[in-house]
Amino acid sequence: MYEAQSARWLMPGPGGKTTAGSTSTAAVDLSAHLGQNVMFTLDQPAHFRAGDGSIGAAITDDVILYPGHVYRFYVEAGRTHFRALRAGGTNAIISYAPVG
User: Fold this and answer.
1) How many domains does the chain fold into?
2) What is residue 24's DSSP assignment?
3) Residue 96 falls within a domain, yes or no?
């Protein structure tokens, strides 16, 4: 579902940013990028959950994404939104941008 790549990849633009704090972010809508890859980077670890527009809050059981990687997420029907929750004591800035 998520593919980590070397951190040396550059983020394309334009994209967006969201902050994962001690409570889950609101659902971030990526449906404008249906059929495309969206690349993610983080400055701190965060739990990540993907789904449709009714996706529930991210929780500590969700997959953790780590800084130092670029993650590729393919936006498709049923996976058009994401939510995140910090995985440690520090908020995580999540940057994302479509490619291709």
Assistant:
1) 1
2) P
3) no
Position 2 in a domain: yes
11 contacts: CB under 8 Å, gap ≥ 6: 39, 41, 70, 95, 97
Q: Is residue 83 part of a domain?
A: no
Taking the alpha carbons at both ends of the chain, their separation in whole angstroms is 18
Q: Decide if 50 contacts 10 (C-beta within 8 A).
A: no
Tell me the per-residue pLDDT of 10-27, one tens digit each, with 9 for 90 and over.
Answer: 445 578 999 999 999 999
Contacts of 94 (CB under 8 A, 6+ apart): 17, 18, 19, 20, 40, 41, 42, 46, 65, 84
pTM: 0.84
Using CB atoms within 10 Å of the CB of residue 100, give its burial: 0 to 12 exposed, 13 to 18 middle, 19+ buried.
exposed
